[in-house]
C-alpha cells in the first residue's frame, strides 16, 4: 500500500531574539560593545531614578504622556568595570508616521538587507546602536527597513577611531581645534537636528537625542531640594532657542527642496553628532553656586558643519544671559522671604489660639453666671429726719434680660429633670433592644455556620458516594473488558486451531469467508467490542495464518471471486456478489459505526483503506453481473 504525501509548507521568516549582538553579522559586537564579552540589557529610562530622588514628581497637567525612552546598560564579565548606560537612538521616520517615541509593537516583521526577519525590540535597538546600519520606519503599511550603510558615503568624522576605547554611534574621530578651549562643558550629549532628504526624495526628520539629556537635566534641577530658581529660566531659554533654530532650519530646507542637488552626498541624510565624552562635573563655589566659566552652550552660525576643518576660524555667539545679581544675594533674598513667611504663619497660629482661648473663657463665665442667682440689694436707709424708707431703684433693661434668661434656663433645667425618668427608661429600653439584636445576630451567625457545616458535610458525602460509584463503574468496565478480551482470545485460538491445520484450498477459503461474514453482519461493534483485523471476512484466497493487511489488494479480491464463480451456481454467485458488495460498502460501514469502535488511530486508518480497496474491486464485478 502507498500513501501520497501532502504538500510541504514554505518556511517562515527567521526569528531574532535576545540582547546578544551579532546574530547575523559577526562583526557587530566590535561596533556595539565597549568591552569584549560584555552583555547588554535594555530598560525604560526613569529620570527620577537616574537623579536619585525618591520623592514623586508632580507632572504638569499638559505634560505629554509619551512612551518611556529606551536605554542600554552594558555589564562587563565579573563586574570588573562599573556598568555604563546610554540612550538608544531613535530610528529615521517617514513624514506622517504617528508617535515620535513609539516605534510600534514588538516582535514584528523587519526587512534586513532585503530579507524578512521577526525581530524583538532588543534586537531592533541593537541595530539602532550599530553605526554600520541604518534603521528606517516607513509609512504604513510598509515594514521597518534595516540596510547596511555604504562605507564610501561616510565621512571621516563619522567613523570610530581605532585608538578610542569607548566607541559610540557616530562619534567624532578627532576633536575640533577649539575642543581644549571648551573642555569644561557639562553636557554629555549634543546633537544637531536637521530636516534632510533621503535618496528617494522623501523628507525624513531626524530625531534629536539631546532632548533626552535636556529632560534629565531639567528633572534633576526641578527635583533638587534647594534648587536655584535661575535653572528653570535657563532651561526654558535653551529649549526656546533650540526650537527656534529647528524651525528656521526646517524652513530653509523646505525652501530649497525644489532645487536639484549636484552631488549624491547631498542626498544622503547627514546627521551632525557632536557627542562629547567629557563628563567633568561643573565647578562650584563654596556656597554651592555654579562658578563662572564657559559652561553655556555655544550657538553655531553658518552653513558649515562644526566637524569640517577650514583654514578660517569659526565664529561663535554666546547666548549666556548677563548676570545682574550675585548668587549670595539671591540666596539671602530667598532665606529672608522664607523667614518672613514662617513669621507670618506663626503669628496667625498664635492669634487663632488666643481667640479660641478667650472664647472658651467667655463660655465658662457665661454658664457660671447663669447658674448663680443675683444678690438682693439692701434697702436704702438714708433719711434726714431719721425715718427709714425702703426705696428700691428701678431695674435696668440689661438686668431684666439677664433675669429672664436665668428664669428660662431654670425652667428648661426643671423640665429636663422632670423628664429624666423617661430618658432613663428609654435608654434602658434601647440598651435592651441592642442586646436582643446582638443576640439575634449571634444566633443567626451560629445557625448559618451550622448550616454551612452541614452543607459541606453533605457535599463531602455526595463526593465520596460519587467516587465510590465511579470506582465501581471502572471496576465493572475493566472486568467487562477482561471478559471480552478473554472471549476474543478464546475465539481466536479456536479459529486458529480450525483453519491452521491441513491443506488450504479454495473450498476452505470460501467456507471461512461465509462463516466470518455471518458473524460480521450480526455483530454490533462498540468501544467495548471493537473491530480487529481477524474478525473481518476478507475475500482473499490466502491462508489465515499468513494473511496480513498488505495482502488485501485489488487482484487478490478479483482472484477470490473468479474462483468462487467456478464453484457456485449462477444464481448463488449473483446473491453472493450482491451481499459482499453491500457488506463492504463505505456507507454501510459508516452507518454501523464500525470504524468508530477502533481506538487505535493507525489501525483504524489501515482498516478503512483495506475496506475501500475491497469495495472498489467489487464494484466492477457487481456491475458486470448486473449488466
Written account of the structure:
- Residues 1-31, 147-440, 455-492 are annotated as: Disordered.
- It is found in: Nucleus.
- Its main location: nucleus.
- There is one protein chain.
- By secondary structure, the protein is α/β, with parallel strands linked by helices.
- It has five domains: 11-149, no CATH class; 171-324, no CATH class; 334-373 and 399-418; 421-501; 507-626, no CATH class.
- Helix content is 45%, strand content 8%.
- It contains 13 helices and 13 strands.
- The strands form four sheets. A six-stranded mixed beta sheet has the order 1-7-6-9-8-5, with helices on one face. It has a three-stranded antiparallel beta sheet with strand order 2-3-4, with no helix packed on it.
- The relative contact order is 0.05.
Amino acid at each position: 500500500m502507498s500513501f501520497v504525501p501532502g504538500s510541504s509548507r514554505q518556511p517562515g521568516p527567521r526569528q531574532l531574539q535576545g540582547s546578544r549582538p551579532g546574530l547575523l553579522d559577526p562583526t557587530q559586537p566590535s561596533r556595539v560593545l565597549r568591552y569584549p564579552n560584555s552583555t547588554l540589557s535594555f530598560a525604560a529610562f526613569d529620570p527620577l531614578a537616574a537623579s536619585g530622588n525618591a520623592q514623586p514628581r508632580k507632572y504638569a497637567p499638559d505634560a505629554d504622556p509619551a512612551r518611556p525612552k529606551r536605554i542600554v546598560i552594558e555589564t562587563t564579565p565579573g563586574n570588573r568595570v562599573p556598568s555604563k548606560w546610554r540612550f538608544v537612538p531613535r530610528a529615521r521616520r517617514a513624514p506622517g508616521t504617528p508617535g515620535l517615541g513609539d516605534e510600534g509593537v514588538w516582535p514584528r516583521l523587519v526587512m534586513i538587507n532585503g530579507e524578512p526577519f521577526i525581530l524583538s525590540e532588543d534586537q531592533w535597538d541593537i541595530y539602532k546602536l550599530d553605526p554600520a546600519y541604518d534603521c528606517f520606519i516607513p509609512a504604513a503599511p510598509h515594514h521597518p527597513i534595516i540596510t547596511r550603510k555604504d562605507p564610501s558615503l561616510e565621512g571621516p568624522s563619522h567613523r570610530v577611531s581605532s585608538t578610542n576605547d569607548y566607541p559610540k554611534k557616530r562619534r567624532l574621530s578627532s576633536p575640533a581645534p577649539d575642543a581644549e578651549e571648551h573642555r569644561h562643558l557639562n553636557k554629555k550629549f549634543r546633537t544637531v537636528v536637521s530636516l534632510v532628504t533621503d535618496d528617494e526624495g522623501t523628507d525624513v526628520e531626524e530625531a534629536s537625542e539631546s532632548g533626552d539629556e535636556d529632560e534629565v537635566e531639567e528633572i534633576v534641577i526641578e527635583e533638587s531640594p534647594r534648587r536655584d530658581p535661575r535653572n528653570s529660566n535657563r532651561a526654558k531659554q535653551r529649549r526656546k532657542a533650540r526650537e527656534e533654530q529647528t524651525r528656521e532650519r526646517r524652513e530653509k530646507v523646505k525652501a530649497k527642496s525644489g532645487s536639484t542637488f549636484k552631488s549624491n552626498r547631498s542626498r544622503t541624510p547627514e546627521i551632525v553628532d557632536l557627542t562629547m565624552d567629557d563628563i567633568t562635573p561643573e565647578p562650584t563655589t563654596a556656597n554651592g553656586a555654579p562658578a563662572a566659566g564657559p559652561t553655556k552652550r555655544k550657538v553655531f552660525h553658518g552653513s558649515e558643519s562644526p566637524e569640517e576643518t577650514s583654514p578660517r576660524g569659526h565664529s561663535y555667539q554666546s547666548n549666556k544671559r548677563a548676570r545682574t545679581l550675585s548668587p549670595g544675594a539671591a540666596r539671602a533674598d530667598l532665606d529672608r522671604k522664607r523667614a518672613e513667611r514662617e513669621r507670618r504663619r506663626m503669628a496667625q497660629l498664635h492669634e487663632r489660639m488666643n481667640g479660641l482661648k478667650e472664647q472658651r473663657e467667655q463660655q465658662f463665665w457665661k454658664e457660671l453666671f447663669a447658674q448663680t442667682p443675683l444678690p438682693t440689694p439692701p434697702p436704702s436707709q438714708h433719711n434726714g429726719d431719721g425715718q427709714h424708707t425702703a426705696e428700691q431703684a428701678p431695674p435696668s433693661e440689661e438686668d431684666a434680660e439677664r433675669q429672664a434668661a436665668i428664669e428660662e434656663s431654670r425652667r428648661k433645667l426643671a423640665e429636663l429633670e422632670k423628664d429624666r425618668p423617661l430618658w432613663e427608661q428609654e435608654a434602658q429600653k434601647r440598651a435592651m433592644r441592642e442586646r436582643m439584636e446582638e443576640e439575634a445576630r449571634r444566633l443567626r451567625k451560629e445557625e448559618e455556620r451550622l448550616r454551612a457545616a452541614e452543607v459541606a458535610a453533605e457535599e463531602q458525602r455526595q463526593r465520596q458516594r460519587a467516587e465510590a460509584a465511579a470506582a465501581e463503574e471502572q471496576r465493572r468496565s475493566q472486568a467487562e473488558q477482561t471478559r471480552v478480551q478473554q472471549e476474543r482470545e478464546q475465539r481466536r485460538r479456536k479459529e486458529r486451531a480450525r483453519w491452521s491445520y491441513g491443506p488450504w484450498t479454495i473450498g476452505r477459503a470460501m467456507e471461512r469467508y461465509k462463516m466470518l461474514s455471518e458473524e460480521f453482519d450480526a455483530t454490533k461493534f462498540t468501544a467495548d467490542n471493537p473491530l480487529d483485523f481477524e474478525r473481518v471476512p476478507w475475500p482473499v484466497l490466502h491462508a489465515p495464518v499468513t494473511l496480513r493487511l498488505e495482502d488485501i489488494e485489488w487482484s487478490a479480491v478479483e482472484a477470490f471471486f473468479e474462483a468462487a464463480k467456478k464453484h457456485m451456481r449462477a444464481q448463488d454467485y449473483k446473491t453472493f456478489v450482491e451481499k459482499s458488495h453491500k457488506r463492504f460498502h463505505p456507507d454501510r460501514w459508516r452507518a454501523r459505526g464500525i470504524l468508530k469502535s477502533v481506538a487505535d488511530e493507525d489501525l483504524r486508518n489501515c482498516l478503512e483503506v483495506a475496506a475501500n480497496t475491497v469495495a472498489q474491486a467489487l464494484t466492477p464485478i457487481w456491475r458486470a453481473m448486473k449488466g
